[in-house]
Write a structure and sequence with these properties.
heterodimer, A: mainly alpha, two-stranded antiparallel sheet, two-stranded antiparallel ribbon, 70% helix, globular, B: mainly alpha, ComplexI_Subunit1 (chain B), lyase (chain B), transmembrane helix (chain B)
Chain lengths: 670, 319
């Protein structure tokens, strides 16, 4: 059986779990059974993807007699699809494992279980689809399946609003993709990607299609300013689904962009790269600034996803620009960096959302102002969450650093680009990426410090208990992957080389055979990094120092109340909170961009009322783009409303006028 | 055999930076005291302080977690590894390829991350204040530092510190506008990152202006010794970065491992550090500490200078 057929069977299996969930109804066994089944199927699909990617198997394709009459549905599994299948199904497997434990806390499991499998099926279908029709159909299926999960906790009004925003943005995105694929299909006269790839299109059509694909796929991935639904919708879902939405579904959006722009459209102009790079840079910097200012843990994580998507798009844009200029090795480096970050982000963002879910199920709180001190109550969750935080903050020797380092190396190659626009834009984007990396550090010091360290800020946080074994196992697994991918990055880079070769016709030199397992993206004289040696040095020097100090100097420890400069205050209210931690950054970066407005109402001495602090942060995307747009639509709708109440004569006149205009248009067009 | 010698030379560098770090701090304190017309502590005082702290009992708050107890060692280890990988007296040492300039900066980020978390662990107002401000300063200083590394890397065509030093020590690169801007930016970043005046006052206590000292307020005994040692190492790291990028003369380059070349390398390295250790307090005593919300302008100027240097390099190879 060809590989693509096995993939389709896995998808059928995922769909089957939806039926299984309905058949089982609300029985207690349903949760472990459904998630257990999706876990097994996801592992099978994962093995398939690994086999195709590492075994260097050629692409396999098949046509199913479903879909439009006479067209059929084309499916194809090549190395690009295989890589994204690996990302999707690894996340799906971890999420299923986590949900076997976490799902027990769900009070309405029938709102989640029947849709979980179909959502996974939808994402896998997008990766396998090889014609415009089945691609768009799977894309919409994925969107709708995820929408049902977003609104599963529909009693909360905010979740309904999030669902509506998501639906509007998803429809808009699909519309753009529909137009893009329509343009490309018109040139080749057929819907299959195969035919679109070989058809020649004019530069203007290619540019329009690229732009539409950037908007359409970018709205799913979370590019600024199309990101507005993401921080609303991702936190609204149950946490294991949030992990999938943020860690995995955004990657399917990136896949859509790569498939259409890199594969189907092909090279036409280096300016496409410029647009993508600038969009990525703005997304990275703005996303992390939003994230730093959040006080809801899951929303902070969702905004941080926006940042990471920006980093991926910087790499993709550079790859486009290098490829259009015929600089294969540099394009391969940029693309590999982007794909490596795709993998890394799917791992640590899933881990962090699982951690947030563990905190949520242990305390019932997402608001960081009411958490604190969980390191004592949930010690194992704390360790894995810390590893996730350090990875996403791009700290060596963990995996987030490796992909950012490679992106920096790709940026440093860009002076060899001949276009002036790129020469000016790329260093600015490099500065934004550097800013984003530093702010991500601040963001995750805040996330871990406020939630897990310090003293509990509410009784719920003070009485939390550690989560179940399934959830812990899933998180531990992801934490190990973070450490392994950070210390042995060469193997990941080698696994990505078939994808790079397919899309840029060149690949990075093989890394696994290098001495000491270093990574050398271009040449040893240019740059190299060795996570393993750094990890070894850190462990040896830290442990050695600790042992020497304890043996030769002093090891005595005394417990004594907090000192705090002589004025210790008992109340946990005196601690720094999430908002106060972010205050300096808010003041430095936020006053202009986010129109941050703080009002402090301090009672005069002797007055008995409480002090008040109010803060308003306005999202520039809502303020300048969506707010006016929504108001305009409402106003136009009100005006158009009058059309309902016309007399018959006026309706006839309208019809007549419309006919005349149409005929005129046709006459002029000819 | 050759591997043993190489390993010994690398270990010499790693050992040397940690051995001389307190002395360098002693020189800056002595010079600063003399400039303020005080006699000042003896040069070896930092060694004595570390010795004393290490032998004292550690006082820990009852709600301190393992993060609080492990963080000092993580901070020390990360700073030490970073400092040990910056070329000091010779280029091309055994492990010089394991971390480039970007990785060294990121290792300092690891140390900062651990220290900022430790500041928040006990849950005091001062600890949170210090961590919050430290991360604000870092969010400006770290990108500036990365841009400096871009500027230097674009000139040298590599991010390997060892290769950059070897190239710059030949003198072929000459005096360049972008290098000048990068040096200026590096000095500002160095001041901010090492908590020196005008950003932070290392001698302050019980003041609302403090940043670094506020984070480590609860620490005592061997934990405090580790953090102090890490701070001294960080100063040496920045000094050796300036020396390696902007004054790489005297280093043993190109795999020259004769005793003479290495000896010259070590002597000139120590000499450079001593000069920097004298210059730093002179600069410090001429300015006053800034208000917290003036920092963005100060550190931002480093960011702007470094960004300008990078832009110039992208526009023309001549700068």
């Amino acid at each position: 059986m060809p590989e693509v057929a096995i993939g389709l069977w896995c998808i059928a299996g995922f769909l089957g779990t939806g039926v299984l969930a309905v058949v089982l109804g609300g029985r207690a066994i349903a949760t472990p059974l459904v998630y257990g089944t999706t876990l097994v199927i996801a592992l099978a699909a994962l093995l398939l993807a690994l086999d195709v990617l590492l075994g260097g198997r050629p692409a396999t394709a098949t046509v199913l007699p479903i879909g439009l009459p006479g067209l059929g549905a084309h499916f194809r599994l090549d190395s690009l699809s295989a890589f994204f299948m690996l990302v999707v199904n690894f996340g799906a497997a971890a999420s299923s494992l986590y949900a076997i434990g976490y799902g027990r806390h769900e009070h309405a499991p029938m709102r989640v279980l029947p849709f979980f499998g179909p959502f996974l099926a939808g994402m896998n279908l997008v990766l396998l689809a090889a014609d415009g029709f089945s691609f768009l159909l799977s894309w919409e299926f994925m969107s709708l399946a995820s929408w049902t999960l977003v609104v599963s906790h529909h009693q909360v009004a905010a979740n309904i609003r999030a669902g509506f925003t998501y639906l509007a943005m998803a429809s808009f995105g699909t519309l753009c993709l529909l137009l893009a694929l329509g343009l490309l299909a018109a040139a080749g006269g057929e819907f299959t990607f195969e035919r679109m790839r070989t058809a020649t299109v004019s530069e203007s059509v290619a540019a329009t299609a690229t732009l539409l694909a950037l908007i359409g796929a970018g709205s799913k991935a979370g590019l600024v300013p199309l990101h507005v639904w993401l921080p609303l919708a991702h936190p609204a879902a149950p946490s294991h689904v949030s992990a999938l939405l943020s860690g995995v579904m955004t990657k399917v959006g990136i896949y859509g962009f790569i498939r259409i722009v890199f594969d189907v459209v092909g090279d036409f102009s280096p300016w496409a790269g410029l647009v993508v790079v600038v969009a990525g840079g703005a997304t990275a910097a703005l996303g992390v600034l939003y994230a730093v200012m959040q006080r809801d843990l899951k929303r902070l994580l969702a905004y941080s996803t926006v940042e990471n998507i920006g980093i991926v798009f910087i790499g993709l844009g550079l790859a486009l620009a290098f490829r259009a200029n015929g600089q294969g090795p540099a394009a391969a480096l940029a693309l590999t960096a982007a794909l490596f970050h795709v993998f890394n982000h799917s791992v640590f963002k899933s881990l962090l959302f699982f951690g947030a879910g563990a905190v949520l199920s242990a305390t019932g709180e997402r608001d960081m102002e009411k958490l604190g001190g969980l390191v004592h109550r949930m010690p194992q969750t704390a360790v894995v969450f810390l590893i996730g935080c350090m990875s996403i903050a791009a700290l060596p020797p963990l995996n987030g650093f490796v992909s950012e380092w490679m992106t920096f190396q790709a940026i440093l190659l860009s002076p060899q680009l001949p276009q002036w626009g790129l020469k000016f834009a790329v260093p600015a984007v490099g500065a934004m990426l550097a800013l984003a990396a530093a702010l991500a550090g601040a963001c995750f010091v805040k996330a871990f410090g406020v939630v897990f360290l310090s003293r509990p800020r509410s009784s719920a946080a003070a009485t939390a208990v550690e989560v179940d074994g399934f959830s812990l196992t899933a998180m531990l697994l992801l934490a190990w992957v973070c450490v392994l991918a950070g210390t042995l990055p060469g193997f990941v880079i080698d696994a990505l080389s078939p994808v790079a070769r397919e899309l840029t016709w060149s690949a990075l030199p093989a890394q696994a055979g290098l001495p000491w397992l270093s990574i050398v993206p271009i040449a040893e004289s240019r740059s190299s990094y060795n996570g393993l040696v750094i990890f070894f040095f850190l462990v040896v020097s830290g442990v050695m120092t600790a042992v020497v100090v304890h043996r030769l100097a002093s090891r005595s420890t005394r417990t004594s109340p907090i000192w705090d400069c002589g004025y210790p205050l008992d109340s946990p209210v005196t601690q720094y909170t999430s908002s106060s931690f972010a205050m300096p950054i808010r003041r430095v970066f936020g006053t202009v961009l986010f129109a941050v407005h703080e009002t402090v109402d301090m009672p005069r001495p002797g007055e008995m009322r409480a002090a008040r602090f109010r803060m308003r942060v306005r999202d520039p995307a809502w303020r300048f783009l969506y707010g006016p747009l929504v108001r305009w639509i409402m106003r136009s709708a009100q005006r158009l409303n009058r059309l309902q109440f016309l007399t018959i004569r006026r309706y006839l006149a309208l019809v007549f006028a419309a006919l005349i205009v149409l005929m005129l248009v046709v006459a002029i067009w000819r | 055999m050759a591997l043993t010698v190489e390993l010994a030379l690398q270990l010499l560098q790693i050992g040397m930076v940690v051995a001389i770090a307190p002395l360098i701090m002693g020189i800056t304190r002595k010079v600063r005291a003399r400039l303020l017309r005080r006699r000042g502590p003896p040069l070896v005082q930092p060694y004595l302080d570390l010795w004393k702290l290490m032998h004292k009992e550690v006082v820990v708050a009852p709600n301190a977690s393992w993060v609080y107890r492990r963080a000092p060692y993580v901070v020390f280890a990360a700073t030490w590894v970073a400092a040990g990988l910056v070329p000091t007296y010779a280029t091309g040492l055994l492990f010089s390829w394991s971390a480039d300039l970007i990785a060294v900066i990121a290792l300092l980020g690891t140390a900062r991350f651990a220290l900022a978390l430790a500041g928040m662990d006990v849950g005091t107002a001062f600890g949170g204040l210090g961590s919050s401000r430290e991360m604000m300063i870092a969010s400006l200083a770290e990108p500036a530092m990365l841009l400096i590394s871009f500027a230097v890397a674009l000139i040298a065509g590599t991010t390997q510190l060892s290769a950059i030093a070897a190239l710059f020590s030949t003198g072929d690169v000459g005096v360049r506008v972008s290098l000048g801007l990068a040096l200026l930016a590096l000095i500002v970043v160095g001041i901010a990152e090492n908590a020196r005046i005008p950003i932070d006052n290392p001698a302050t206590h019980l003041e609302l202006t403090m940043v670094h000292e506020a984070m480590i307020l609860e620490y005592s005994g061997r934990h405090l010794a580790m953090i102090e040692a890490a701070a001294q190492l960080k100063l040496v790291l920045y000094f050796s970065l300036v020396a390696c990028l902007f004054a790489p003369f005297g280093m043993a380059v190109g795999g020259d491992q004769s005793a003479l070349a290495l000896g010259i390398g070590i002597v000139t390295f120590l000499g450079k550090l001593a000069v920097f250790a004298v210059l730093l307090p002179i600069a410090e005593t001429t300015v006053a500490k800034m208000r917290v919300f003036r920092y963005p302008a100060f550190v931002g100027s480093a960011f702007a200078a470094a960004a300008l240097a990078v832009f110039l390099r992208f526009v023309s190879r001549g700068f």
